[in-house]
Amino acid sequence: MIELYYFPTPNTWKASIMLEECGLRYTVKPVNIGAGEQMKPEFLAISPNNKVPAIVDLDGPEGKPLAIFESGAILVYLAEKSGKFMPAGAAARSEVLQWLFWQIGGLGPMAGQAHVFRNFDPPNPTALERYVKESARLYGVMDKRLADRDYLAGEYSIADIACFGWTWFHNYHGQDLALFPNVAAWFARLSAREAVQRGKQVGIELVPEDFRARLSGYELEMPPS
Known about the structure:
By secondary structure, this protein is α+β, with helices and mostly antiparallel strands. It has helices spanning 10-22, 41-44, 71-82, 90-118, 125-145, 158-168, 181-191, 194-201, 209-216; strands at 2-6, 26-30, 54-57, 66-69.
């Protein structure tokens, strides 16, 4: 059994989708980041960077519980535990890891900053231009990569799972998927997967009620202007 410390976000969706895809048994341990529960000592003992997601594998190596924080590390661990969504060959494995780290080092933080500065009051035009432009460049990198393949590393993998949740928030990043048709087609393929749909719905009851409907659909429903 795996304990999933969780609040619905693009990063935590990585863990919930992966658990659903692998068919691993898990239970959700809610962490209300709006109420500051990520700063509680008992959570910091599991995730010292005070971020969700984190997991505790109660059936870890040698039968001992194992705590893991950081979404990328969680994806790799679950791939190795289940033997799924990570190829065994060195070259193919390296390709998956390159695109996983690309998301962790690029798409996630840059798009996240675009999200913040597009909602910042008062606006910061310099920061807004920087992060929206960099997000567009990264979406373009992904679009070029997907021009001749269905998934980022050839076969569906943890690299795709890592990128899905962030791409789902493309409107908040100031990006139009119509400008990135290969990303749009990839996004539709992932969205059609039943495990992705289930994983994305995990913990929806933890989200404030006025945001649940917007968080539940195929694409993010923007608030009325």
